[in-house]
Write a structure and sequence with these properties.
heterodimer, A: alpha/beta, Rossmann fold, 7 helices, 38% helix, B: alpha/beta, Transferase(Phosphotransferase), domain 1, 3 domains, 6-stranded mixed beta sheet, 15 helices, 36% helix
Chain lengths: 228, 460
């Protein structure tokens, strides 16, 4: 061959690996502890409001032509004795969200640790499959204070933020959460307080925009109280 | 310039100089020189093609001028054609000079990129007896290297347009060219600076957000409408639209049956054969060449603004933000621009076509190889280093990389011609620019090789 390298039949190089597919990993780490049964946001309970808005977000991603291709979604809940994988990282077509029930304590540290472990596994898979990815987004939502040892997970996650491996957006619902503890998970973005439904909707609207355009920094600006 | 010509002189005339009205008077002045017998003219071999004048005429220039100028030179019996391949083989020209065949040389061109290539060749050899010249208002002047910040953009300190209105709720807008256009509300797309509506009449209207209806943007649109941009693959504004007697945006053609390159890219170019990739890359480069030849800088070149109609037809959209005349492009994409512009720079300093080259190289690379040139599996895309080039240039390393059959991107890198690999390698590692005509030539050459190889394989 003229260019010196042997290709045999070169009709198509797509081997299923390293074809240049691109993903945006998004992880929702959601508090479903017992206090989420309260109605501090409005007529609905906090957990019902959270479920409603997560379903709307999933529908947005499903219906947006770019978000549908880009987004790899993972959902972890922490309520009761241990966290649960509601949805492991999956393309949106394979996401099957079962609404959360509020129960028990607030194992936030274990929830975040589980989210970190899932992300590391997903990144290894990306590496092996030659899939490029945008910086993962982790949205941490809680209405209270962790009831487990959270420090190690907070330290690891904040290290990943500083190494520019992940973006973390911490959100406190109502008035009973501890902003300083939430800030431990996120050294670069201050926790956002949500006290009404509109705030919730704004949060997920901006997150939706990021899934269809990873370069859209509206959510960063909103968390930093900058003009959108 | 004519009075400076002494001894045996080589005059290399690039095509753009032959198209200047001042050329024939200059040539006549040259013929009257006492030492005219020692002047030889050189031009690129492609100008011999019989349809060259007609081809340029179709592109909007005065093709008859080219034929006339060539006839004048041919009449001297001292016009020689050289095959410069990429038009810019000035090293060969300097070799002739150093071999003592000529005493001095002049390069005539109107194009800045040709001058830059000439400067690059001259700089290496430190020759002072060679000059590049161009016509300025019919008179020949020596080219001067532009200072980097020499070209100021049209800028107003205080916004003069106080009439910006919000046409969000408009049912109709008015275009002087197309009259009243009914906006279809069930088909709206959010663009960078406004919303894009389909109209009942079949065109598209971009209705700008009030904050983007500025004095400069309207002046730019007016300038764009005066330009002769007739290319079906450039979705150029066709007219300004008005609401309540105020300009609110522009109208353009609708392009159907297309998908944006970003979508195609993030799905790994599914359905594209290797030939389709090369075709798409070539079509993309030819559209860019068309724009750059008209002095238009895209500025915000990115896969989202490139549409493809399968298998490989390319369209550029969102043209309202381009830099034209003295009106700047005030946006850029961080992944497709190496320089990080400040707000002030974007608004006050004009860019050159060379500033589009990082995006051009990256996009062509992504089309042909299917990966970003800075691919690093251990980093997210935003953190990949634009100064790192991820592909080897040495043959043995390429062969080793090719052995990893899981890496389709390495296969495609090896599949390019050696020249194409060099052009990418030296651009991304040393900023050595290969201009669009060179790229177009190399890709066409490689495509011809592929076709021959396919035919040979089929014949066996």
């Amino acid at each position: 061959m003229e260019n010196g390298f042997d290709f045999g039949s070169f009709g198509n190089f797509q081997s299923g690996a390293n074809d240049g597919t691109v993903k945006l990993p998004v992880c929702l780490v959601l508090d479903n502890s017992g206090s989420m049964q309260d109605r501090t946001l409005g007529r609905m309970t906090k957990i019902d409001e959270l479920n409603r808005i997560v379903i709307e977000f999933i529908n947005y991603v499903r219906n947006d032509p770019k978000a549908r291709i880009l987004c790899d979604l993972c959902i972890v809940s922490f309520g009761g004795e241990r966290p649960e994988i509601v949805q492991g990282y999956s393309p949106i077509d394979r996401v099957n969200y079962v609404p959360l029930r509020a129960q028990g304590r607030t194992p936030m540290g274990a929830g975040v640790q589980l989210a970190i472990d899932l992300l590391i596994k997903r990144r290894t898979w990306y590496r092996n499959e030659g899939v490029q990815h945008y910086k993962p987004i982790l949205l941490l939502i809680s209405d209270g204070v962790p009831t487990d040892k959270y420090e190690a997970a907070a330290f690891q996650l904040s290290g990943m933020v500083i190494s520019k491996d992940i973006k973390v957006f911490p959100v406190g619902i109502g008035h009973d959460f501890d902003a300083e503890i939430l800030a431990d998970f996120s050294p670069q973005v201050k926790p956002k307080q949500l006290t009404d439904v509109q705030g919730f909707e704004k949060l997920f609207t901006l997150l939706s925009r990021s899934t269809s355009n990873p370069h859209d920094d509206s959510i960063d600006k909103w968390f930093n109280n900058e003009t959108l | 310039m004519v009075e400076e010509i002494h001894g045996k002189t080589m005059i290399f005339i690039e095509e753009s100089a032959l198209l200047e009205k001042g050329f024939i008077p200059f040539a006549e002045e040259l013929f009257n020189l006492p030492n005219f017998g020692e002047v030889n003219f050189f031009a690129d071999g492609s100008l011999k093609e019989p349809q060259r004048g007609a081809a340029i005429g179709n592109a909007g220039a005065n093709g008859w001028l080219l034929d006339g100028s060539l006839d004048v030179l041919n009449g001297t019996g001292r016009l020689f054609f050289v095959d410069t391949k990429s038009y810019f083989d000035f090293d060969g020209l300097f070799d002739e000079l150093e071999a003592g065949k000529f005493d001095s040389c002049r390069v005539m061109t109107q194009k800045e990129n040709v001058f830059e290539a000439f400067e690059g060749a001259r700089g290496k050899r430190k020759r002072k007896d060679v000059k590049a010249v161009r016509f300025v208002v019919g008179k020949l002047e020596e080219w001067q290297a532009q200072k980097k910040d020499a070209r100021a953009a049209f800028f107003v300190e205080k916004e003069k347009n106080t009439n910006a209105i919000d046409a969000e709720g408009a049912e109709y807008v008015f275009s002087p060219k197309y009259r009243y256009l009914k906006l279809l509300r069930d088909n709206v797309r959010e663009g960078g600076e406004g919303k894009i509506y389909k109209t009942y009449q079949g065109m598209l209207c971009k209705v700008l957000h009030p904050k983007h209806i500025t004095y400069i943007n309207i002046k730019k649109l007016q300038a764009m409408l005066k330009m002769d941009v007739f290319n079906a693959h450039v979705n150029w504004p066709q007219d300004i639209i008005y609401y309540d007697n105020n300009p609110v945006g522009y109208v353009m053609d609708e392009i159907t049956g297309v998908e944006d390159l970003d979508n195609i890219r993030i799905t790994g170019f599914k359905g594209f054969s290797e030939t389709d990739r090369y075709d798409a890359a070539l079509n993309f480069l030819e559209v860019l060449y068309y724009l750059h030849e008209k002095g238009i800088v895209v500025g915000d070149l990115k896969p989202d603004n490139i549409l493809i109609r399968r298998p490989s037809e390319v369209f550029l959209i969102d043209c309202g933000s381009y830099q034209v005349a003295d009106y700047p492009c005030i946006v850029f994409h961080p992944q497709y621009t190496k320089k990080k512009y400040t707000e002030q720079e974007l608004r006050t300093v004009l860019r050159s076509p060379k500033d589009d080259y990082y995006a051009i190289n990256k996009i062509v690379f992504e089309i042909l190889v299917g990966q970003t040139p800075h691919y690093n599996p251990n980093k997210p895309i935003e953190e990949q280093d634009p100064n790192e080039f991820a592909y080897p240039i040495e043959d043995t390393r390429i062969r080793n990389a090719q052995n990893d059959k899981k890496r389709a991107d390495f296969q495609r890198w090896a599949f390019m011609s050696g020249k194409m690999r060099e052009m990418f390698f030296y651009y991304f590692t040393q900023n050595k620019v290969s201009y669009l005509p060179e790229w177009i030539t190399e890709i066409k050459n490689r495509m011809a090789e592929i076709e021959n190889e396919t035919a040979s394989a089929a014949a066996k």
